[in-house]
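User: Run a structure prediction on this.
Assistant: Running it now.
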Amino acid sequence: MPVFGLQPAGLLQTIFEDIGVALAIIDKDDRVVFANRTALEFFGAPEGGGIITFQEWRKNFRFEDAVGKQIPIEESAVRRAMRGEHLQSEEVRVEMPDGSLKWVLTWAYQFCSMGMRGVIALIVDQTGEMQLRKAAAQLQRMETLGILAAGLAHDFNNILNTISTNIALVPVTEQMPQSVRLRLEQISEAVERAAGLVRRLIQFSRTHELHKQQLQVNDIVRDVVRLVTPLLRKDISLNLDLGRDLAPIDADPPQLEQVLVNLIVNALDAMPHGGELRISTSAVHQPDGGSEEDWQEFVSIAVADSGVGIPEELQYAIFEPFFTTKPEGKGTGLGLSSSYGIVRQHNGSIEVESKPGQGSTFKVFFPAERVAAHNV
């Protein structure tokens, strides 16, 4: 049992090890004199296994509050408790030495017992719960945005139709000044671009009609790759890994093609200095109930790049309409949101895995049809 200096009695030692949370004891001289097994598994044991100070230990981690502001060591729960403050539990984010992020709930209490004075620190890993909470909040926000987008698209479309109809009624004659004719053409082009944005908003809101048919995902992927080949720069390498014997899915071919084009274009934009574009398909089984018999088969499409990556704090917003990390004028912020709407209308799901500087992977899952699979 890992003990750096303090030797609790056998029963107390057992309790410390089995309470299920990370526990550490810091004495009045700032030394970490005890850490239970959970603490060592979560934060790692000190090199050499000897006693280290709290300051030495903490410099290996970055602690942030709920809004992402770094918490200096003097404002840490341990130092505040050491000063005699009575603290409530705090939810903080920890950047680990490997760059991963953890959400934890911390408590710190001052104690004086058995000739020792210091602070007992308790830490509960809430990373999983936080991810579920964020995912639930994101789903609710996306549903609300979908309702708003549907209403906005309908009203905006009516306005565009009025403009377009009135332009069509303007008689174009040889006597019309060239400047006026040019203005009318510019208005028509602007209306068409706006109509395109409305169509993508409608896709996000999932109010458009789909024309589904059974199809093979690999066939769609090959067609889309041929379509986007002219966009592949010389510094981009393409790697296709298409699974065999995939079950068909029930989908609208043009809509599925648009999802893939959106993801591929985003991947290319994320690699301004070149890199690797990887597109793969596979069969995936995911739980759809409490037993193995309830697991459902999905067909997955993954589009991965080796580009700049997406910060974690932005990943929950990338599917929202008009949200974009691209420079002004380089994107509308509707590509991923329309893809999200199309996938959801197909009873599928879309997720992202990304780290800054390490690229991004977008995975789309569609329910497989329960019929005999075909060789592809």
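The domain at 10-125 is CATH 3.30.450.20 (Beta-Lactamase).
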